Amino acid sequence: MVKGIVGGQNLPADVTQLIDQLERHCLAPDGSLVSKSTFYDLQLARDEMSRERLRYLEAMAIYSEATAMVEEYQQAVAVANLGGIRDVQGLYPQLGLKNSPQVYEALEHRFVVAEAAQKLRLPLISKDGEIHEEEIEKWSTLSRSSLDSTSTNFTINSSSNSTNYMNISSTSAGGSANNACSSSSTDAAELGVGGVPNKFLGITPAYLWQTQLQQAALSTDMAEYQISLFREIEGRLKAKCDKLANAFVIDDIDTSTGHQNSSARLPERVKLIIEEIEREETALREDLYSADRKFAEYYNDELQKTWLCKRCETMNAKLRNYLVEATEEASLAYNKAVTRLREYQGVDPHFDTIARQYHDIVKKLENMQWTIRQVEMDLNRLPDHPST
Question: What domain of life is recorded for the organism (predicted)?
Answer without folding.
Answer: Eukaryota
